[in-house]
Amino acid sequence: MGKSSTNSKTSSKGLNFKQNILSYFANAGNAIIPELSKELTISVPKVTTVVNELISDGLVQDYGKIESTGGRKPNLYGVVPDSAFFIGVDVKHSHINIGLLNLQKSLIKVTENLAYKLDNTEESLEVLCQYINDFIASLPINKDRILGIGLNLSGRINYSTGYSYSFFFFDEQPLSEIIQSKVGIRVFLENDTRAMAYGEFCVGAVGKEKDVLFLNLDYGIGVGILIDGQLYYGKSGYAGELGHIPIFDNELICHCGKKGCLETEASGWALTRMFREKLKEGSTSVLSRNDTLPEAIMMEDIIQAAKNEDVLAIDLIARVGDRLGRGIAFLINVFNPELVILGGSLASTGDYIELPIKTAINKYSLNLVNTDTQLKLSKLGEHAGIVGACLLVRDRVLALI
């Protein structure tokens, strides 16, 4: 075997040691040398050498000595929080949220509610990229310290190939590569619901639970599935299309082109349609008194009206909650999860949607199955998407998942 081949293997092994130790710090927190040696099955001298190299690289720091039961006090080591950063971009139908996370999982900066219209056009993609570039330019850090950008989109996303099949599928080049060429940082695509689910799992509403369902209740409906603490993607990466289960016997055409989907009666689109219909039939609302045409009223307006105790908005959100509960009951019967989290825009209405959902779950799911299932509202709220996007990039770059 040639010397160059041997050197290459040695170098690769050294990089693996570095990555393993850095990943341990990032996942488990600060540690002493003997602990690292035991957990990673690497000799103490080798751990000491690699930790010193990581300190020289500016990625790890010595946090000083800690108390011990006897002998010399050991030094505690951990990551330098601001040695690396990750950007999360959460793309909604009417706005964009962007956030910056450091290596220690702290959200450093958030820019919310950037006005945006998600269209399947090159112009819409250009606006998205410009927002990302503007955000990067506003940061007081060197661009090379940003190790990746996580970008969430609704619909069918294949994260492993970087393709989006619902938006911006213009040519054969993966969307992740197209955006990367425009912003100059590696880009990771993810379905918005899965990213939100991961955020809640890591730093949100999830405690020790491992089998979790996260419901993204927005204009559409998606479910992020975690089985034994791992995101479930399915064979082609598109698992979680809850909104397109044919659950109703109606003649309503869904956005997917089929009839009777859950989304036709239990989604933001359904809520908006029903609200407009009620106004045209003569029902009153604070929104109708504002001289707003029914066609101009959107889901966000109805949610705000409900928070202001508008009776029509509250009644229709309860109706949507009842329909949603049927779909969630189906999921509980199939997956028997420990925890179901309600997230997305509609979840911000709190009890107005949660209580009807609970009632429907009790009515339509098997008692033996739902007894051990908790139902919670999202803890991260509007930040779930950007936090999840950042954490997915962080954990993939550090090879934690």
- Uncertain stretches of 5 or more adjacent residues: 1-12
Strand order of the largest sheet: 6-5-4-7-10
**Biggest sheet character:** 5 strands, mixed
What is the chain-wise order of helices and strands?
HEHHEEEEEHEEEHEHEEEHHHEHHEH
CATH class of the largest domain, named: Alpha Beta
Report the sheet-strand fraction.
15-25%
> Roughly how many Å is the radius of gyration?
24 Å
Shape: globular
Give me the CATH architecture of the largest domain, please: 2-Layer Sandwich
Rounded mean pLDDT score: 92
- The CATH homologous superfamily of the largest domain: ATPase, nucleotide binding domain
Q: What structural class should be given to the helix and strand makeup?
A: alpha/beta
Contiguous helical run count: 12
Secondary structure: helix percent: 40-55%
Pfam family, one: ROK
Family: Belongs to the ROK (NagC/XylR) family.
InterPro entries: ATPase_NBD, ROK, ROK_cs, WH-like_DNA-bd_sf, WH_DNA-bd_sf
Organism: Spirosoma aureum
